[in-house]
Amino acid sequence: MTMNERKEAEKEQFNTLAAVWSNSEEAIGQAEKVVAALGIQSGQSLMDVASGSGVILHALKKRQIAPRRYLAMDISPGMLEELRRSFPEAETDCADFESPLAYHPGFDHVLIYNSIPHFSNLDMLFANAQRSLLPGGTFVIAHSRTRQGLKEHHQRIGYISEREPIPANEELSRLAAQYAFDQVVTSDDEFFYFSCRSRR
């Protein structure tokens, strides 16, 4: 299966799941922890890549954080439709962040939450994050599970990834340096969290 075929299959799968996708209290609670680690404050801007049906927006609302601008990006129009049911005012972009043109300049934060296993072109992720961030902006890759927890989850559901579900710290650090990021922070205790700051 080619990368484009895989992307189309995943898009259809997420479109099918969108109507029954649940932003449970547990899921929102976990997203709140990531929002806290991200350090976003009211008045800042956030690009939520692979946003799904809006769990990060629910977490922002629960923490009473009002971004100056919020953009939800996802390859699944069904997921974005579900997000707009709860947040009709949300700005959305149905796009693939692995595409060279899938970036929007001027953000304080770019977040990829709970979806890094579905991406394969990590160079493009870092390039688009850099293009989307203001100088000193933060790029974050986070997952509600640890590396080991995610591997075990994938084994249980029979999901096969073409690489490690969460890239190694060394690879993430190398990409950060290559694409003009610094202040790399990685944590893999309660959940996985990687962040870096744009030097441009």
Automatic annotation (TrEMBL):
InterPro entries reported for this sequence: Methyltransf_11, SAM-dependent_MTases_sf
Domain named Methyltransferase type: residues: 48-141
Entry superkingdom: Bacteria
Name the UniProt record assigns to this protein: Methyltransferase type 11 domain-containing protein
